[in-house]
Amino acid sequence: MASRVLYLLGCAAPPVLRIADVVADAQRAGWDVCLGLTPTAAHWLTDQLPALEQQSGHPVRSRYKLPGQPDAWPPATAALVAPATFNTVNQWALGVTEKFVVGFAAEAIGKGIPLVTMPCVNAAFARHPQFPHSLETLRRAGVRVLYGPGGFVPNAPGEGRPDTFPWARALTAAAEAVDDAAEGAQRDG
């Protein structure tokens, strides 16, 4: 049986600094992990990128591939966009795809790839009028948004708790999204 492939797509929020642990947790759960990062997140993790590539067995991507270049990753079974910053959530919902992570996530909606996101924003960003609209847009598009009770709960600006980011919940939701998609395909087929 083919391995389940998780595209773990991280953005520049403090929980991304633990991404090596998340890759290991996902691998223990049976995922073949392909790690994608926003350019800023890749910059934050510059010193760790070679070890992350060795750990995952795939190149870490933060840019689009060149036209005609073969894809270095196997096809995704599911994608988890986490931590998803304010900028990424809004760009994704609006279809602004200048970043590889956002472009993949936007296209995955149309391809029917199970998608989960867990935003990581402080309470001030969460009060911006666009943010709830973007979350609702993603939910209507079929993305599982783990925000609020049972997901990420914003804290006051400057009071981040990156060690409490609910990564385990995000990985569980990715597995559930795959299971639900398989059940839906059986019902429809």
Automatic annotation (TrEMBL):
<dbReference type="InterPro" id="IPR003382">
    <property type="entry name" value="Flavoprotein"/>
</dbReference>
<dbReference type="Pfam" id="PF02441">
    <property type="entry name" value="Flavoprotein"/>
</dbReference>
<feature type="domain" description="Flavoprotein">
    <location>
        <begin position="13"/>
        <end position="138"/>
    </location>
</feature>
<protein>
    <submittedName>
        <fullName>Flavoprotein</fullName>
    </submittedName>
</protein>
<dbReference type="InterPro" id="IPR036551">
    <property type="entry name" value="Flavin_trans-like"/>
</dbReference>
